[in-house]
Amino acid sequence: MKQITFSGNKNIVGKMVAEYRKKRNLSQGELAAKMQLMNVNIDQQMISKIEKNQRQVTDYEFACFCKCLNASPNELLKYFDNCLY
């Protein structure tokens, strides 16, 4: 299967997911539990892989991360411009 990347990245939100998760004093497991309450099938290991840029993020996961972390889409996409060059 072909790996989909953007400028070598599997996602562009993982760094900010980690930053906002820590700001909100949530563990990866706690964030996964919040996501599961929103019917997103994700666990602590998947959160870890996202934060380490080892897993892609779907559009619905992105939307739920914004809600669970009380962050705007623009906040989680902070490093998007860095990926363009």
Protein architecture, described:
The model has no long low-confidence stretch (mean pLDDT 91). It is built from six helices and no strands. It starts with 13 loop residues before the first helix and ends with a helix. The protein has helices at 14-23, 28-37, 44-51, 59-69, 73-76, 80-83.
* Mean pLDDT over the residues: 91
Order of helices and strands: HHHHHH
- How many H/I helical runs? 6
Gyration radius (Cα, Å) is 12 Å
Percent strand equals under 5%
Largest sheet: none
Which residues form runs of ≥5 with pLDDT under 50? none
Percent helix range? 55-70%
Q: Total strand count, please?
A: 0
Task: State the secondary-structure class.
Answer: mainly alpha
End-to-end CA span = 26 Å
| Approximate shape | globular
Could you give a short description of this structure?
The protein has helices at residues 14-23, 28-37, 44-51, 59-69, 73-76, 80-83. By secondary structure, it is an all-alpha fold. The chain starts with 13 loop residues before the first helix and ends with a helix.
